[in-house]
Amino acid sequence: MSGQVDSFERLRREVIECRKCPRLVHWRETVAAEKRAAFKDWDYWGRPLPGFGDPHAELLVVGLAPAAHGGNRTGRVFTGDRSGDWLYRALYRAGYANQPTSDHRDDGLRLTGAYVTAAVRCAPPGNRPTIVERDNCLPYLQRELDLLEKVRVFVPLGAFAYSVLSRATVLRPRPRFGHCVETRLPDGRVVLCSYHPSQRNTFTATLSEEMFDAVFRRARELARL
To answer: Which domains does the chain have, with CATH numbers?
Structure first.
């Protein structure tokens, strides 16, 4: 930060203004201009997404990237798509959210004890960021980790988020990704893996709501140890 004191507001501004990745800039803005027919009346966000939640969180959830017609439309991470529906229902049932729905960034949703972010901040074509795009975003996650001083448990959603979080936390050795796999960092904090609540996983029953709820119940237990 070149001698400047970092803050959530400073980080938020820098994320929103980011244009490091030409491919992602083009894609997110094209999607925002063309829109999906079902959302033709929406004023799409069309910019990178900062993290969202409680700055005093004990739990940090890390996803892959915003959905083209989800967060890229609504302006809040995991908001306006089915993955977000699953995530915030689970956080609500675990006592981390004040409501089970997340429709738009002004819908009154509040998180207590939890913070949600993404490994990549822009919607990528085909939901597949490149290695360069991943690495361009990594410093934003590292700064969030520095600011979120009270986090005790990290929940990466999917193998991609797990690999990025492992780089940010310098997790070595890194156990193979698997649902509910737990790894303790040298400082005592815990990485607790979960399958991503993507439609590919939920429609095929690879991930059930019971399985997903179990992750956040366990996260709550670990945060209290």
So the answer is: 8-224 (3.40.470.10)
Question: Tokens 């429609």 label which residue?
Answer: 203
Per the listing, tokens 């900062």 go with: 50
Whether residue 190 contacts residue 222, with contact meaning beta carbons closer than 8 Å, is answered with yes
Q: What tokens were used for 56?
A: 């005093």
Classified as helix, coil or strand, 203 is helix
Q: How far is CA 224 from CA 77, 97, 116, 184, in A?
A: 26, 17, 19, 14
From the list 140, 200, 155, the residue with the least C-alpha distance to 1 is 140
Amino acid at 159: A
**CA gap 166, 213 in Å, rounded:** 23
pTM above 0.85, yes or no: yes
> Per-residue confidence of the chain (225 residues) as pLDDT tens digits?
544 678 999 999 999 999 999 999 999 999 999 999 999 999 999 999 999 999 999 999 999 999 999 999 999 999 999 999 999 999 999 999 999 999 999 999 999 999 999 999 999 999 999 999 999 999 999 999 999 999 999 999 999 999 999 999 988 889 999 999 999 999 999 999 999 999 999 999 999 999 999 999 999 999 998
Beta bridge partners of 31: none
23-30's contacts with Cβ under 8 Å and 24+ in sequence apart are 23/124, 23/125, 23/130, 23/133, 24/120, 24/122, 24/123, 24/124, 24/129, 24/133, 25/122, 27/68, 27/122, 27/123, 27/124, 27/125, 28/68, 28/72, 28/122, 28/123
CA–CA separation, 99 and 110 (whole Å): 8
